[in-house]
């Protein structure tokens, strides 16, 4: 059974955030809120976590996983960013965007797109997600919590707990965080290509 953590949306309880971070360090797969919708998250190097996310969402090896980072300095450890791309991404973060970029050697091979050697990165504009990232001290390997055959993500923590009770280890609930996933922008060629229109304004990349 998954543990259920009820977290204040504006002032997340440090003790609770610490418990969630400890469980992630111990290999837990958690559901947590972001500024677009709920996401599945685990520790960066967790092979079991990756396999469980693939299983829950029925993903193939071409799926871009996302490294959810606390800030730009952390993001820069995991992807290559040139000057022009740096400015564009810097102006859009934190926010509801996922950027696809060439990965550095810090990223486990299993997370990379098999041909492009790219990975998704993002910096969320969400108090609870930021508190968790700060406590964890490293990015969360994440994927939107969108179940196979469903058009929209679930929005209620208690419903997620009921549906996924035996396939995740914890659910972090700070209230409804919407159904629209991030806008995905692929910068792997140096020029922005909008892969998915979502919660983030696309006009700056068009």
Automatic annotation (TrEMBL):
Listed InterPro entries: DHBP_synth_RibB-like_a/b_dom, Sua5-like_dom, SUA5_domain
Chain ranges of the YrdC-like domain: 14-200
Enzyme Commission identifier(s): 2.7.7.87
TM segment ranges: none
UniProt keyword annotations, A-Z: Nucleotidyltransferase, Transferase
GO MF term set: L-threonylcarbamoyladenylate synthase
One Pfam family, short name: Sua5_yciO_yrdC
Protein name: L-threonylcarbamoyladenylate synthase
């Amino acid at each position: 059974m998954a543990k259920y953590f009820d977290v204040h949306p504006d002032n997340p309880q440090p003790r609770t955030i610490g418990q969630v971070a400890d469980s992630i360090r111990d290999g837990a797969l958690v559901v947590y809120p972001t500024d677009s919708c709920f996401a599945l998250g685990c520790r960066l190097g967790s092979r079991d976590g990756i396999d469980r996310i693939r299983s829950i969402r029925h993903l193939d090896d071409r799926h871009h996983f996302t490294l959810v980072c606390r800030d730009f300095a952390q993001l820069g450890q995991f992807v290559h960013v040139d000057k022009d791309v740096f400015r564009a991404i810097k102006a859009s973060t934190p926010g509801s965007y996922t950027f696809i970029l060439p990965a550095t050697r810090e990223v486990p091979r299993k997370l990379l797109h098999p041909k492009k050697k790219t990975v998704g990165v993002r910096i969320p504009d969400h108090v609870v997600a930021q508190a968790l990232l700060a406590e964890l001290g490293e990015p969360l390997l994440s994927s939107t919590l969108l179940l196979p055959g469903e058009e929209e993500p679930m929005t209620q923590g208690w419903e997620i707990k009921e549906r996924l009770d035996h396939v995740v280890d914890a659910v972090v609930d700070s209230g409804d965080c919407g159904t629209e996933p991030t806008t995905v922008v692929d910068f792997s060629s140096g020029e922005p290509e909008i892969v998915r229109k979502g919660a983030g304004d696309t006009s700056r990349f068009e």
